[in-house]
Amino acid sequence: MSIEALVEAIDGLIAEGASAHSDAASIKSLVRQLTRLESVTTSAVAAFETSGDWSVDGAKTAAAWVSTACRLPRPMGRRLVRRGRNLRHLPATAQAFEEGDITSAHLDTVAALRRSGTEDALARDESMLVKQAKRLRFEQFTRAAAYWDQLADPDGTEELAEARRARRDVYLEPSISGMYLGQMTLDPISGSIVANELQRIERELFASDWAQAREELGKEPTVDDLRRTPAQRRADALVEMAARSSAVDGRTFRRPAPLFSVLVDWPTLSGRVCELAEGIVVSPGELVDWLSVADLERAVMQSTGRVEVSPKQRLFTGATRRAIELRDRECTHPFCDEAGARCQADHIDPWSQSGETTQENGRLLCGFHNRLRNQRPPPLWE
Question: Residue 103 needs a FRET pair 20 to 30 A away by CA distance; which of 97, 187, 315, 347 works?
């Protein structure tokens, strides 16, 4: 098939109008064919790099030629060339990419696993990883790939984790106009502590803004009625964090303590788990520095899928809710990945119909999907 024929086919699709292809089946087909076209383009760029034709125009590299000639951002041009190189070493991934079963993001994830300490294991397990890429949501696949990496090269994974932590950095400097500009890069555990506290205070500010707007309007407000935007509340929450820190006596200040949940028998039943509540996979070595201040809880995973949760070493309440969080980990709606801590525990068999408040009859749903469940007719995912 010539490129001219492809151009004609695309012109035909455009002429038919977007509404002619706006159904679910067409969207899936279009994305699949777009992925296949990206695969062809990636392979062609790899062959172009090998040919050396890019040097005729005086370009230093194939990536430089692609970026300039195709008016792409330089990082995008380099990424396209790099993907082409990776395809040569990943035959199963290349085939699935060519068939539209996985995307370039999956290719990047698998390629990132390939290094000297994992090369042989990756050659052995590549087909298995591709099979998982076809089956799982992308975020789930990246977690599975991270666990594969830990098992394939434990020492290398710890070294990478240490290098990741070494990249932590924060700067906040005044600009010429007096506005403070900054950037923050934190390792997963430190970032989780800061982000969770920032979100907690931001929610406090949101509740305050909502109450103020309701009092002023005399009715339930909308988000457009609030006096601060989400960005402004986050900025004010960061200032509030600093203000609260400076107001606390350092001798009585209790540092934020991460909660580590130890899943007993989970590896036997379901595979390795070493990740934050947000789903970020961490290496075991990254937990060591926090063990002296962390809260610990033990959760026993039984063969029935039931989770028995012990109290934390410090105060812990709501064991049934916590067991559901540990089991489901996120909203159970198939098109949602809201973190479990921000979800509601919902009765599978409704309480109004004698449904029991037990772990077996509970599941996590975010607020949106919990409300959606009560609509009539019932949603298709029920």
Answer: 187
CA of 273: how far to CAs of 27, 125, 175, 342, 346, in Å? 34, 19, 44, 20, 25
Nearest to 107 by CA among 124, 137, 82: 82
Say if strands 344-347 and 295-301 run parallel, antiparallel, or are unpaired. unpaired
Please give the residue range of the domain that contains residue 25: 3-166
Dihedral, CA atoms, 38, 43, 46, 47, nearest 10 degrees? -130
Residues 42, 104, single domain; the answer is yes
pTM (predicted TM-score): 0.72
Give tens-digit pLDDT for 261-300.
Answer: 776 666 655 666 777 776 778 888 887 777 766 777 666 7
In degrees and rounded to multiples of 5, residue 136 shows phi and psi of -95, 155
What six digits make up the tokens of 208?
């305050």
Please name the helix (run of DSSP H) or strand (run of DSSP E) that holds residue 202, with its range, or none.
helix 188-217
Looking at the structure, do residues 229 and 297 belong to the same domain, yes or no?
A: no
